[in-house]
Design brief:
Elements: H1 3-26, H2 47-113, E1 118-121, E2 125-133, E3 138-146, E4 152-156, H3 167-174, E5 178-181, E6 185-188, E7 191-194, E8 199-200, E9 203-204, E10 216-221, E11 226-229, H4 234-238, E12 242-248, E13 251-254, E14 257-258, H5 263-267, E15 274-279, E16 285-290, H6 303-312, E17 318-321, E18 329-331, E19 334-335, E20 349-353
Antiparallel strand pairs: 1-2, 2-3, 3-16, 4-20, 5-18, 5-20, 6-7, 8-9, 10-11, 10-12, 13-14, 13-17, 15-16, 15-17, 18-19
Length: 355
């Protein structure tokens, strides 16, 4: 179809409408509206003021209601703020009271030991160092409150099974704030191995060994609780979720009650440098490190005296760790005790504490 044909088609289609438009323009059409198209207001004039009065009265009532509602809301908001302030005070007081028994208990056990001569406090632990003075011996107490699982660990000498190093060396290697000698040892073929069952990072080092005679195992579980005693079955130890631990002899105290000391350990030797690990009801740890000039039994403390100290200091469970020349206490980078060998003894296991 060409453009002309398309134009013609459009013109033919619009022709009727164009013709109608021309007719309307030329015709003289008129329209008239009757009175019915404009309805009159039939409301009596007297009713208008009455209606206005009613509307005004309604507006006044609405105004009074709004004022009353606003006042009520204001009072409720004020009451809410006052109650909220009181509740905040109650919550604050409750939280302070929740920690009060723990604080009171800590003060009570601390007073039993004395006044700390040094203290380290961080988000990982609070470590307090005390001196001990008795008639026949002197020594030190280290009270440790762990706040994090990273506050304490046990390490092997030079991090190798069969190797040994001093506690001071281990403290320096790990940049620890303090260190105490751990379990006993046995020498073989020029190497120094941990005695009996030893755990490190939740795994057995050298395998599990049932407790024999007076041997015990003591260590820390994943809840930072001291776990100790004779372990005759591996499953018995596995279910306790231990992080680390070592072995020695004998158990000194259980649940605040002194345990019978084997006859051999009463006289071999009777007095010696000692290291003891213990705990409190709130899971704080207590280490006692007692000095002695030699291991011939003429200086140091007896195990019975160590039990007496544990009772006096309010401890719950206590375990005798390797003593004699093995007793080592490091605090703030310094050797605190006086090693009976004259120098610190290289050992296979150490307890370390971190700031």
């Amino acid at each position: 179809m060409t453009v002309k044909q398309l134009n013609r088609l459009m013109l033919a289609s619009l022709a009727p409408f164009i013709g109608m438009l021309i007719w309307l323009l030329n015709s003289n059409l008129t329209f008239e509206l009757t009175d019915a198209a404009f309805p009159k207001d039939t409301t009596p004039l007297a009713a208008v003021p009455a209606q206005s009065t009613s509307v005004i009265s309604g507006l006044d009532q609405a105004k009074q209601l709004a004022i009353h509602t606003a006042s009520s809301i204001k009072k409720n908001v004020k009451l809410y703020l006052a109650v909220n302030e009181k509740m905040n005070g109650v919550v604050t007081l409750t939280y302070s009271q929740l920690g009060r028994p723990s604080l009171i208990y800590d003060r009570r056990i601390t007073r039993k030991i004395g006044s700390p001569v040094q203290q380290v406090q961080s988000d990982k632990l609070t470590a307090q160092l005390f001196t001990i003075r008795a008639e026949k011996f002197s020594g030190y107490a280290l009270k440790v409150k762990l706040k994090s699982e990273n506050g304490m660990k046990m390490v092997l000498g030079n991090d190798k099974y069969g190797s040994a190093e001093t506690t001071l060396s281990a403290v320096r290697r790990y940049n620890a704030i303090a260190g105490v000698n751990a379990g006993g040892f046995a020498d073989s073929d020029g190497k120094r191995y941990p005695l009996s069952t030893t755990m490190l990072n939740g795994k057995y080092v050298g395998g599990f060994h049932p407790s024999e005679k007076d041997l015990f195992f003591v260590g820390l579980n994943d809840s930072l609780k001291l776990i100790g005693g004779k372990m005759t079955d591996r499953s018995e130890l596995d279910e306790k979720n231990l992080k680390f631990g070592a072995s020695f002899v004998p158990v000194l105290m259980k649940n605040g009650v002194p345990m019978p000391i084997p006859q051999k350990w009463l006289t071999s030797p009777s007095r010696a440098p000692r290291t003891v690990i213990a705990n409190y009801k709130d899971n704080q740890l207590l280490f006692l490190v007692i000095d002695g000039r030699d291991e011939a039994g003429s200086s140091g403390a007896t195990l019975t005296e160590m039990q007496y100290l544990l009772e006096r200091f309010g401890a719950m469970d206590g375990y005798n760790l390797d003593g004699g020349g093995s007793s080592s206490l490091i605090f703030n980078g310094r050797v605190i005790n006086h090693p009976s060998d004259g120098t610190l003894r290289p050992l296979p296991t150490h307890f370390l504490f971190f700031k």
